[in-house]
Design brief:
Layout: H1 2-25, H2 27-35, E1 56-74, E2 83-84, E3 88-101, E4 104-118, E5 125-139, E6 146-161, E7 172-188, E8 193-205, E9 208-209, E10 213-230
Antiparallel strand pairs: 1-2, 1-3, 1-10, 3-4, 4-5, 5-6, 6-7, 7-8, 8-10, 9-10
Length: 232
């Protein structure tokens, strides 16, 4: 009986010494061992999202509402009066971007803007624009996954005008320099996926069509809802 007691005591001392060495050498392992056999909470915790967004490539897609600005005016005398092209429409687009720092990213994008229709009946004029921009985004600060940002971009717009009154001649396409400025708010659902709600003003230039009609100071206000995905 004494031998068994001595053996049990020796084993206990050895295990205590081993546990002390594990705790001293590897605190995480010791903590894990301490929890073995302990009843725990088996609920799944939400993923942790770092306030510092990772650098790298990302893609985005969005859609939104467009409010157009501009008026179609005749180039030569003797033509009917101008048409107000200030209407509403929709937009859809996508882009490829790269984040250089947690606060700075660049992006190239291509968007289609439906600018609505001016006039009624056979005299109606439909307008649209395909806009390609290279933009910079400044992510101001991240708080609890929310990030306000500012943006600015330059590029070109292919302005398109549908068939209008016969006196104006046929519609057509016209390439113009374009620029944009905007602001918005994004929310990081995870380290890879972010939702984005933003406003953007896009200047589309002053396109002319068929030598008989031009649109002065064509522009659009956009409200866009989109999603961004970080590429790993």
């Amino acid at each position: 009986m004494a031998g068994r007691s001595f053996l049990a005591g020796a084993v206990a001392v050895a295990l205590l010494a081993a546990g002390t060495r594990v705790e001293a050498a590897d605190p995480e392992t010791a903590d894990m061992l301490a929890k073995l056999g302990k009843p725990g909470d088996f609920s799944i915790a939400p993923p942790e999202v770092s306030d510092d967004a990772p650098s790298g490539w990302y893609v985005r897609a969005d859609a939104g509402y467009v409010a157009a600005i501009g008026g179609a005016q005749p180039v030569a005398g003797g033509l009917p009066g101008g048409l107000d092209l200030s209407g509403s429409g929709w937009s859809a687009g996508g882009g490829l971007g790269y984040r250089f720092f947690p606060f700075l990213r660049s992006e190239v994008s291509l968007d289609y803007l439906d600018l609505g229709t001016a006039g009624q009946g056979p005299g109606a004029v439909s307008a649209s624009a395909t806009v390609a921009l290279a933009s910079l985004y400044w992510d101001v600060v991240t708080v609890a996954g929310f990030t306000p940002y500012l943006s600015a971009g330059v590029g070109f717009a292919i302005n398109s005008l549908g068939a209008g009154p016969a006196a104006f001649g046929p519609g057509g396409n016209d390439w113009q320099f374009a620029w944009s400025a905007g602001a918005g708010l994004s929310y990081a659902l995870s380290s890879e996926i972010s939702f984005d709600l933003g406003y953007r003003y896009v200047d589309l230039g002053s396109p002319s069509y068929g030598g008989a009609l031009f649109v002065g100071d064509a522009a659009a206000h956009q409200v866009r809802l989109g999603v961004r995905y970080m590429l790993r």
